[in-house]
Every structure is written in structure tokens, then in C-alpha cells.
From TrEMBL:
ATP binds at K137. It comes from Corallococcus sicarius. SMART domains: S_TKc. Residues 108-367 form the Protein kinase domain. This is Serine/threonine protein kinase.
Amino acid sequence: MHGAGRHQELYEEEVLLALDEGLLSSDEAAALREEALRLHRGPLELMKERGLLTENTLDLLRKDLARERTDRGGAAPIQEAPTLSTAPPATVDTDGAPAFPVPGWDRYEPVRFLGQGGMGTVFLAYDPLLRRNVALKFVRDGDPELARRFLSEARAQARVRHERVCEVYEVGEVRGQAFIAMRYVEGPSLGQLSHSLTLEQRVLVLAQAAEGVHAAHRAGLVHRDLKPGNILVERTEDGGFNPFVMDFGLARDWREEGGHPNAVLGTPHYMPPEQARGEGHRLDRRADVYALGGTLYALLTGQPPFTGDTETQVLTRLQTQPPVPPRALDANIPEDLEAIVLKCLEKERPLRYDSVRSLIDDLQRFLAGEPVRARHGARYWLRKKVRKHRAALMLGTGVVVVVAGALGQAALTRAQVSERERLARAFTERVERIESAVRYSALSRLHDTREDRQALRASMATLEADVRRAGTQAEGAGQYALGRALFALDDLDGARQKLEAAWTHGYREPRVAWALAQVLGHLYRDQLLLDVERRAPEQREARRQELNRRYRDPALVYLRQAEGPDVPAPPAFVKALFAFYEDRPEEALSLLGTPGMQVPWFYEAPLLRGDILLARAMQRWNGGDRAGSQADLSLSREAYAAAVATAESQPGVHAVLGRLELAAMVMELYGEGNVLPHYERGLKALSHALAAAPDHARALVLVARFHRRLAEQRTNQGGE
């Protein structure tokens, strides 16, 4: 096939893949198909251009597509593998595929190009020594971080010795090229195969694949990118199926720190909320439980649990909305299977299965017709037992045994979690949804957020009413949740009041200490960085001591109690706060320069960097170091601008940029007097803050202070 016909076929494959992954509706697919043909551009490329795909997702989809094309073409024969003299030297096919990077290699003989992913290229090759086909993966040139991740994938996958995990044969380097040789799986992905499987076969294959994930967990690894496309399935000679878990490129040891703790890595449609928030340091095996539940959801319904026009929209929905119950999409899905899926997809980790082993056990109960643990009611258990053992129950005594066992199990289940812990989890889950909605509103293009905040305040009012109804047993957890919500909505005084009430009521967990440290720290920074008046040294010192006593010192006390996995912040960020509050700015800046702090969406890091530099600029100015002060002001401005570029609709971020220009303007009043550039830049920043929130109190106060300072300068110069 040549020319337009060949392009049309390739474009159609890309559109169908996007449909299978739940990235497009049927109407959107038709429009995209037409546009691709008209522009002679690949559909996936067009989707990335419009913000519907990230570069990482695009690479993964192309890799899936390459696998599908390979599956249709069939595997290369093992017995008649090409020799070095007859194998293609560098190029593998005639469709513009990448060249085999090690021509003339005597260890492996290239057969054909299989696909290209985010880290490199994959080739089918023949091992003449062991007479078997292998999949050879080569890392992309010139990127040390990719090489590190590439070798990390190999080490991770090689650590897991299990029949349901694709085996790594060899890891090495040849002619400067790092490579992995692994088992070649001759079959499609589970997502591509699912439409031809019965419901029971889908459940069975997923349960088998989950055995491989469980083995990874026993080796200390969390996969972090499980989805239908990362499970390949081979047909057995007797017509059965052998699934293999693939692509451990994002796997990490959940017992260790490291990597990019606040990076959002993975496939948005299948990642749990904690992963979507970038809390990499908090991920444990329950993250994979969630992803397996999302995979099962897709196998049952034909779409992932959450979809959207952009990946940002998907990330927002998975944190703020419950998934549509599978039976609402297909009433033929069994209730027990729906219960299993929804338990996996709980937003609060303690409500999911505690392990993949527990999930596998419930899937096997479903296949055996036994009651599943995902449903707890005594009536349900009794009904299932009666249905399962109807003949035995006719004998009489079996009824008593089964009823007693069912009721005992139900009572045990209800007794597992105290009412206070249940309420704490429920309130925490709800406030995390509010926080996530605030964040994703902030990360959107600059817009008036009043409608967003009105909806969130309505959610908070409902939460507050539920806290009151719950009574004294929920007082601590409820006040904590309300305090976090107020902090997310930028109400620092209200947040402090609620959080201190939670602490007073004995709710003194590390996450409460962290929230209090955050609120007090923001109050400290706001007061400290607005205090640019020219005062005598003893007056400045007295003012600083007062701020330390009121805000900084208690913030440090709480910070020291804010340790552990429940603290929703990267460890380096917490350490940077410590260093800043303890007057060690260089150490704080160094910590903020670590790789984990460079993730674009985490605007809190450049925001803190800007605060540290502005505080140092003011210290240098008060000490007579004008040049050093100006240099720090410039660096602080750059840091704030980086935060603004990420959080365009967060009014407080624009306000701190205005605050910096006010400080610079005051310095100029006592210096050369060139205040207009700072006045204009400051009002521009504050206009953006007020565009996002026209009633933002701190921005309105800053606008008034700018006008007063300009009037003061003109009066001093004899103007009007």
C-alpha cells in the first residue's frame, strides 16, 4: 500500500487506539480523523499539539501501536533466524523505522523494529547462542536522566522473579549504548485483547497479572504505571492465556526515599489521587491496587475510570469526583465485581484493599461464586452462602453454621475500624478533594475564580454541617479538615483558628502539625516581607523578635512534629522551611535546588525560593549592601515569575510578586528615587491577582499601599 491509502490506514490505527484508551469520544474521533487527513498530520501528534496528550503519553501510545502492528505481522521464526551475513546491517524495515543502533553485533541479530517509548527504542532480535527471540531495548542518546531511569527499570524488573513478570535476560552496554534484553512476548496488550474475552476471562487474566504485581511488592517495588497497555498477553497451546506485567520504568522501592518525590509520573487515567498530587514519597502498594482497579474498570466498561479533554482535566476529576459506577455504564456487570472495582478506586488509601494479595483473593472468590470481601453486609453474606450451599442447607444444621459464620464475619468487619477513625478518614478525603479542586483551578489559565471558590465554599459548608452533626467524637478530626480547607482557600486566620482547635481537642497527628506549621509560616512570611520601613536597628530587631515569638517559633515547634508518610510535602521542602526559619538561607536555597523541587507544577518551591531571596535582599539593604540587595531582588523576581507562570489563577502568587515590587519601591524611596518601574510592575501583578479574585483582600491592601507610596514620593519631590 502506498501514498494516501497507507497514510489513511496509519491514521485510522492511531484514532482507534485513542478510542480504546478512552481519550476520545466517537464524535471527537470522527472530527480528528477528518482533520488528520486534511492536514496530512498524525492524529496522535495533533492531540498532543492541542494539549490532549503529554509527550510521555504520546510515546507510550506509539509503543502500544508498534506492538499491535508487530502482533499482526507475526513473530519471526526461531529456527530460521537470520545470520549476520544475511541480516539487515543497520536499517530494519523500509517504513522509516529507526536503524538498529549496533550494526554487526555478534551477540544479538536484529530482526525488526518493534516500537519507540519515552526512554528509547525496542527491537526484536535473535539470540544465536541460546536460540531464542528477545526484545532488545536501547536507551535514547544524550540524556543522563533517561539513562538512569533506563537502568533503574532493568534493575527493578530483574529483581522480580515471577512467571507473570516479563523476564529480563541481560543488562549491559555495547559501543556506548545501554541495553536491556528481555523476553519477547508474542501477543497483544490486555487492552487490545479484552473485547474478544468473556467477562470471566478478563477477571482471570487480570488476577493472574496481579500475581506478578504482588511478587513485585514482595521485592519492595511499586510499579506506578499499571494499565491495560502495560500487560501483554500470550496465547497458550491449549487456548489459555499467559499475561505478563511490563514496563517497570517508573517502579521504585516504596521502602526508600529518592527520585522525584513530587513529580507527577504515570498515566493520568489510571493513577491514584496521591500520585496525581505528586506525592511520590507517599506511594505504597495501595497505589498499584488503585491502578489494577482502574484497569479492571476499563476491561469491564471499555473506558478508564476518569476521562477528559486534557490530562489536567483528568487529574482534576480523579481527585474531586467519584468514578461513575460500572453498572451505570453496563447493567450486566455483576454487583460483586463492581464492588471490587470501587473498593480499589477509593480515594482514601486505607479504604482500598490493603494489598494486591487481598484483591486477588477477592477476584478468586468472585470466580468461585463465594461472597467477596468488598461487600460487608450480613444479609449479603447470608444470601451468597445460601445460594452457594443451597443443597447442604436443606439438611438443616448447616444453616446455623453458615448464619453464625456470616454474622460473625460481618460483626468482625464492622469492629475493625473505630467510629472516630472512620470519620477522620471521611473528612480527610473530602478536604483533599477541596484542596485538589483549588490547586487545579489555580493551575488553569488566568480566569475569575469566584465561581470556583463559591462552589468550594459550598462544599466546605456541607462538611462543616457534617462535622457538627457527628458530635464530640469527631471534633478534632473535623476541625482539622475545616482548617485545611480554609488554608486552601487562602483564609489564614480562619485556618489557624480551626487547626488550633483540633490540636486542643487532642488531635495531634503529624499531618495536623504540618498544617499548623504551614499556616503560621505563611503568616510569618507575610508580615516579615512587608516590613520594609526604614527604622533604627534596635526597632528592627524588636519587630523581628515579635514576629518570631508570634509566628516563627511556634511554626518551628510544629515542624519538628511534622514527620512521617502522612505529611503531604516532599522532605526536601520541609527541610528548606526549617533552614529558612532558622536563618540559614543558603542551605534552604540549596535544598530547593535539588531535582525533586524542579517539577513545574509544584509552584510552592519557587514561591518559597522567592520569599527567601526577598528576605535576604531586605537584610542586605538594611545592612547597607545595596548591590547585594538588588541582585537578590532580581533573583526573587525570577522565582516569583516562575511560580506565577505555573499558577496563573492563584491570586496569592500574583500578590507576592506585587509585594516584592512594593519592597523594591520603598527601597528606592530611600535610594535614588526611581520608583515608577516598581510601581507599574507591582500594579500589573496585582491586576492579575484581582482578575483571578476581585475581592482578594491582600491584593486590594497592596494596591492602596502602592498609591500611598507614590503620593509620598511626589510630595517629597514637591509635586501634586
